[in-house]
Amino acid sequence: QVQLVESGGGLVQPGGSLRLSCAASGFAFSDFVMAWFLQAPGEGREVVASINGGGTTYLVDSVKGRFTISRDNVKKMVFLQMNSLKADDTAVYYCASRPTGGSVYDFWGQGTQVTVSS
């Protein structure tokens, strides 16, 4: 049974930091691309960052220099370190996975709320 379980969200002031974690189980983790998406109120889900099994990363332009994605293939976890947070970063953040070479993210976590506010 595939499971993706996010943690680490919360309320933070502008300029602050949060580290999101996603624990994966039930599939061959190192053979999958892992990604973080966000969904702001009233908006669709948008990719924030992705990382393949070998550690090659992609970051959307709006978070470059502020966010870092990483993974631990032994512990089957993926992380999103978020620094210099802005109010616009407020959203529900989802962990997702797709097979390397595939185009569709098949598995999703339940999401974790990140709120950036003073």
Mind explaining what this structure looks like?
- The chain has 118 residues and is mainly β.
- The chain is built from no helices and eleven strands.
- Strands 2, 4, 5, 6, 9, 10 and 11 form a seven-stranded mixed beta sheet that branches. Strands 1-3-8-7 form a four-stranded antiparallel beta sheet, with no helix packed on it.
- The model has no long low-confidence stretch (mean pLDDT 96).
- Residue share in helix: under 10%
Summarize the main sheet: 7 strands, mixed
Residue-averaged pLDDT: 96
% residues in beta strands: over 45%
Q: Determine the number of helices (DSSP H or I, runs of at least 4 residues).
A: 0
Unreliably modeled segments: none
Per the principal axes of the C-alpha atoms, what is the gross shape?
Answer: globular
Calculate the terminal CA-CA distance, rounded to whole Å.
40 Å
Q: Which structural category fits the helices and strands?
A: mainly beta
H/E series: EEEEEEEEEEE
**What value does the Rg take, in angstroms?**
13 Å
How many strand units?
Answer: 11
Which secondary structure elements does this structure contain, and how are they paired or packed?
Layout: E1 3-7, E2 10-12, E3 18-25, E4 32-39, E5 45-51, E6 57-59, E7 67-72, E8 77-82, E9 91-99, E10 107-108, E11 112-116
Parallel strand pairs: 2-11
Antiparallel strand pairs: 1-3, 3-8, 4-5, 4-9, 5-6, 7-8, 9-10, 9-11
